[in-house]
Amino acid sequence: MLQGTVIKSTGSWYQVRLESGEVLPCRIVGKIRLEVEKLTNPVAVGDQVELTLEPGEERTGAIRNILPRKNYVVRQSPRKKHELHLLASNIDQAIVLVTITNPNLKVGFIDRFLLMTEPYEIPTVLIMNKSDLYEEEDMELYEGLKFMYERIGYKTMLTSAVDGTGLDELRELLAGKVTLIGGQSGVGKSTLINTIQPQLDLRTGEISDYSGKGQHTTTFAEMYELDFGGAIIDTPGIKTLSFNNLEPMDVAHNFREFFERSEDCRFGGACLHRNEPGCAVKEAIENGEISELRYQNYLVILDEIEDQNYWERHKN
User: Fold this and answer.
1) Relative to the CA of 183, which of 38, 57, 77, 193 has its CA 20 to 30 Å away?
2) CA 180 – CA 200 distance, rounded (Å)
3) Residue 48, class by beta-carbon neighbours within 10 Å (0-12 exposed, 13-18 middle, 19+ buried)?
4) Residue 163 and residue 146: Cα distance in Å, rounded?
């Protein structure tokens, strides 16, 4: 039995890097017991797997077992709304990459991404890319968002592949760790990765003049080793993030500043911070201690989950 790390998933076949360094195309053989139910993909990039060599002239492997995961990032499948898609596993940190302009920033996406990583206490860094394009009002928005997210514990930074802003800091952040990088299409993820690791030569796309949105350039998640140590897992451009795996209370507990204040709510950890009396979170919002913007994003996600999951929760 050989052991290796899944570095690419293409649906039915997986690229596995063996401990020797050899990369072997592998497929799943037999039934594999899943940690997560309702998965569209039982094996994820980052998984440690056990495999055997298949007979034949071409060297291929058969994945026999997935070793226990220390963590994983899962989201609602974009194609099958009742199933889950495993983005990656066994990661040390995550980066949510956004831009303020070209394409325009959607703050709600940031909070949705954090809702994927927070349940597993995966350190997540917010990077605002393409800073060379920012006008004065864009920089004012950046400073406001930096204050909002750093005061609740999320590191925030600027980068630009054009003028080199933040690239040394980014390399330092990535060195020696396995990092999941995610963002919406068009935010310059592939260009940024190519700049810090030119030999990867990832395919890049342009912003559509018609829609103002990015074009998908990454089709499947893939892990790349960095020559200065560590590895990155590049994920397909994410259009939307929904959560059929969460209940309303899961959302309340994973907006970290809400959870910290909830012990002072009249109903404690059972408070959803909407219309309940004696809510410490709503009081903190009124006092400016918790962001009104984060709260509005929270309410939108809460309503969406309640609407989507109502039948599931009440089927018994």
Assistant:
1) 38
2) 16
3) middle
4) 21
- β-pairing verdict for 23-28 and 61-66: parallel
The length of the chain is: 316
How far is it, in rounded angstroms, from Cα 266 to Cα 91?
Answer: 37
* Amino acid found at 174: L
Residue 239 CB neighbours (<10 A): 12
| Mean pLDDT lowest among 14-18, 67-71, 312-316 | 312-316
Query: Six-digit token pair at 2?
Result: 């050989």
Q: How far is CA 216 from CA 9, 185, 186, 204, 226, in A?
A: 17, 6, 8, 9, 23
Tokens of 185: 């299409």
Residue 113 CA to residue 2 CA, distance in Å, equals: 35
More confident residue, 161 or 217: 161
- Residues β-bridged to residue 88: 73
Question: Averaged over 140-147, what is the pLDDT?
Answer: 97
Q: What is the DSSP letter of 68?
A: P
Q: Side chain identity at 80, as an amino acid letter?
A: K
pLDDT over 60 at 209, yes or no: no
Per the listing, tokens 């997210």 go with 149
d(CA 92, CA 222): 16
Contact present, 215 and 185 (Cβ < 8 Å): yes
CA distance 113 to 278: 29
Strands 84-89 and 156-158: unpaired
Locate the DSSP E strands across 22-60.
23-28, 48-53
- Report the C-alpha gap between 147 and 152 in whole angstroms: 9
- pLDDT range class, residue 104, cuts 50, 70, 90: very high
Residue 56 half-sphere exposure, CB side, CA atoms within 13 Å?
Answer: 8
Question: Residue 211 has what pLDDT?
Answer: 39
Amino acid occupying residue 82: H
